[in-house]
Amino acid sequence: MAVVAVIGAQWGDEGKGKIVDELAMRADYVVRYQGGNNAGHRVVHDGGEFSFHLVPSGILFPNTICIIGNGVVVDPKALLEEMEQLKQQGIDVSRLYISERAHVVMPYHFVLDRLEEESRTGEKLEGTPRGIAPAYVDKHARTGIRMSELSDVDAFRAKLSMILQQKNRMITQIYGQPALSLEEIHGEYFKYGQQLHTRVVDTQKMLHDALVEHKTILLEGAQGALLDIDFGTYPYVTSSSTMAANAAVGAGLPPRCIDRVVGIYKAYITRIGSGPMPTEIFDGTAEVLRGKGHEFKGNNGRERRCGWFDGVAGRFIAQINGLDAAVITKLDVLDTLPSIKICTAYNLRGQTIHNLPASPNDLAACEPIYEEVPGWQCSTTGISTYDELPEAAKNYLKRLEEILETPIVMVSVSPQRGKTIQIQDILTEPDHDNRYPETACANVIKMRGPRVWASHFDIFPPHPS
């Protein structure tokens, strides 16, 4: 049994969907614990290409139960459309369940999301206009609607009527837009509640029973950790906590049950939209990475910003999440480069720093301090074992391990399922006295020592006399 939290360790688009799909073959449960349909995970294999926005990436395996956790905000219309698309691709979605405590993204959330972004002066946040932020605002303001409430026709109507009066005042009086209809929203969303009724269950109990039965559970993050609401590059962040600490809360599990936290890093780094990005590349190398890495977002083909691997941000995420292991994706995208840069520190107004500044102005002022390493200039796409990698590629991975202070346990060399080098087994807890003996940071891992539950030692030792 293992409970493994899988998080994106950069600004998103690290390949979380592919890695969760690879691990889900041996998992009993896959749980989405935060975000909404502003997420986009892609899985490619012989059966085709699959896109996931709310449905966990483990749905492609017939024996894996998938759960949308209480920490997710659910657009029921988008969910039903996604389920239908998967059915048309031959995927069985009967094993999908939704937490009764998950909050609903309502029509007024879409409207307010768009109007609030349009009203911003200066640089826009450029988030997805899918109502995610207003839905989380209502959740914390205690004016949200939960999935379990959609199927109670009278109670839902009474609550919606009260909330909509407030929202319509904002929409009409502040933004000068037409009011939304209670009857239309109630009718549409009650219908969605009926369609999803059998899937809306007490998922906390399901997962508690799974723990008792020693099942393997994957906790799947939606957005990258550098977009975390607290520790990301605020305000250019998402509206929920993307950190491993939130994985237990967003899934409905006790925090001490998480056996391992795995961070997914791209071999370089990308970002979509606004916000500081110290290692961003503006020359032809960016076009090489963008073209070979297919760094385009969504149906409109919007380009992702590309940069060299940011070791400062990467180590910060490893530390704050307590990463036990790292996965490097898209190593093959670097195959043709004669040399590769790694950011190991920042120069902030003449001072060398090794930490991620909290201020966006300070981060924008940071100049990357690079270490340059030779490239390997040969294809890694068909490689299936670590030993087969070119020596320069191994040296690059070892240097990333040293900077992140985290062992690399998997390396992806293609978007295709199976094109992944497994160095260590993520789902099997190794001997703590000999964890990852081959890695460059073995001493760091040994220094951390074994995990000890509170019940195994005296939390409040006697005061020395």
Briefly, what is this?
The chain is α/β, with parallel strands linked by helices.
What does this molecule look like?
It is a single chain. A hairpin with a 2-residue loop joins strand 3 (41-45) and strand 4. Helix 3 runs parallel beside helix 5. It is globular, with a radius of gyration of 23 Å. The protein starts with a strand and ends in a 17-residue tail after the last helix. It is built from 13 helices and 22 strands. It is α/β, with parallel strands linked by helices. Its cofactor is Mg(2+). Mg(2+) binds at residues 13, 40. The active site is at residues 13, 41.
Sketch the major β-sheet.
10 strands, mixed
Q: What is the 3D shape?
A: globular
CATH class of the largest domain: Alpha Beta
Radius of gyration: 23 Å
Helix content: 25-40%
* % residues in beta strands: 15-25%
State the strand order across the main sheet.
9-7-5-2-10-1-11-17-21-22
Overall mean confidence score, pLDDT: 90
CATH architecture of the largest domain: Alpha-Beta Complex
CATH superfamily of the largest domain: Adenylosuccinate Synthetase, subunit A, domain 3
Count of separate structural domains: 2
- N- to C-terminal separation? 43 Å
Question: Helical element count?
Answer: 13
Can you tell me the residue ranges where pLDDT is under 50 for at least 5 consecutive residues? Answer: 430-437, 442-460
What is the CATH T-level topology of the largest domain?
Adenylosuccinate Synthetase, Chain A, domain 3
What's the number of extended β-strand segments? 22
